[in-house]
Amino acid sequence: MTTVIMACPTCGFVIADFTEEQMAAEERVAKRYQYLKKKQTLCPNCLIATKRLKELRGAEADEAKAAAPVFSGEILTPEEVEGFEEAEAAETPLLDELENGPWPSHVTELKKSKYHMMMYEEGMRLRQTQWGFGGYVSLPGVAAGILVRASARPDIARGANFMRMLAPSGGYYTTDMLRTVCDITDEHAYGLLHLHSAGGDIEILGIPTEDLEPTVKALNEHGFDVGSTSDAYRNSVDCLGMSRCDVALTDSMGMRDAWYKRYLDDVQYPRFPHKLKVRFSGCPNDCARAQQKSGIALVGVFRDLPRVDGDRLTEWVGRGGDMNAIVRMCPTRAMIWDGKSLEIDADSCVRCMFCINKCSYAIRPGVDRGVAIVVGAKFRGKYGPLLGKVLTPFVPANPPDYNEVFEIADRVADAFDEHARRKERLGDMIFRVGMDQFTEWVGVEPSPRQMAEPRTNVYYHWKAEELGR
Ligand code: SF4
Ligand code: SF4
Questions:
Q1: Which residue, of 215, 230, 245, is where some domain finishes?
Q2: Ligand 1 pocket residues where CB is under 6 Å
Q3: Do 147 and 191 belong to one domain?
Q4: CATH code: domain of residue 119
Q5: In 3-state terms, what secondary structure has residue 390?
Q6: Pair 195, 182: CB distance under 8 Å
Q7: What is the pLDDT of residues 391-400, one digit of tens each?
Q8: Residue 430 C-alpha to ligand 2 middle, in angstroms?
Q9: What pTM, to 2 d.p., does this model score?
Q10: How far is CA 198 from CA 85, 228, 248, 297, 426, in A?
Q11: pLDDT single digits (tens) 328-376
């Protein structure tokens, strides 16, 4: 067995530890190695960002591993911080003010935790957070899921580690699950949770470095997974789908579970040029905001027409329902209503769900159901917020493994992996190369649905001969 380590060039902390044999046998390990070779990394030990990690092999690696720092003490528990007791005992007039009054106070609650209250007081006094830069870090065996926040006030707190755990589908927690997470947080961290972050995961705040691995172990023992940082698939968000919603067209929770079963490794081992988010919505109402927030949005759709129950519609109108208002608001004017019967023009209807939402008693979704794959949405990144573009308007959604859907999603991820620049989001890459080039890479026929504004759309390039020139 030949050891290979990737270590911080400044302090020697080992960030990844493999063997050459593992790299040859496991694709995941090989990809992780290639990724770490190119990546700028924040060392969890000395908090110095390095352009390249130090790579050592064989006897040299074994020697460096034995000599590497395990925990340098740079990120300390509150009790270990020099002068911490004095800092804690210092007066906090601004925070005290927030405890006054008859209403519940978050400061009173925060004081029950191990959070550094003086960081908050000083932040309020100076009107600026006293926490400094932060970043994602990897430890051997925990490649994704840990964030480090440095401190601008080492006299109060040197820094803090956060950990992200993946949420259950639909956000369904049992009280037992939540109690378990709270107990782990009390034992190993500040005793504070961020529930949920914008990415839909739970963040456990303030874990001392030496407690990181025990925390991961404790979470894993109770069936929770850690991940969702760095350049990997992030935590997926889904809607409640068929568990609660009577217009759900696909089982968004079941599809998310199948996704995790298939891709958990890619969630936990960063290897893409940048992060890649996947979200699942059961219908075009898109309660998971998949088409605004995720590189790959899997949205339940139907391709026949909305089903109209004439008797129920008459009853609904008789009870005061305003069908004229719905017809007026149909975005493509696809509905023809003569006061008694309703017709929907198949060519005009875009299956937007509006009429179904407004009158679900009489108008129901069609029965020919599947998934639309929408790509490239994001909030941040080079070209700012971008909405998703339809890549494939209809793919059959066949449980339990949803192979047809995931095979296309795989091709999207491969194209992203191969062609994106470093730290370029999928939406920015598509914007840069054009939708025509992207569809060619993914092996999908271009379609008018991929264009927001034909002939002016930068996402599609026409050849001169196509324009008759
Ligand atoms: Fe229901 Fe559709 Fe919203 Fe999912 S996206 S919760 S299926 S309305
Ligand atoms: Fe109009 Fe939307 Fe209803 Fe189709 S689904 S008829 S586009 S409101």
A1: 230
A2: 239-241, 245, 247-248, 252, 281-283, 285-287
A3: yes
A4: 3.30.70.2500
A5: strand
A6: no
A7: 999 999 999 9
A8: 29
A9: 0.83
A10: 34, 12, 23, 16, 19
A11: 999 999 999 999 899 999 989 999 999 999 999 999 999 999 999 999 9
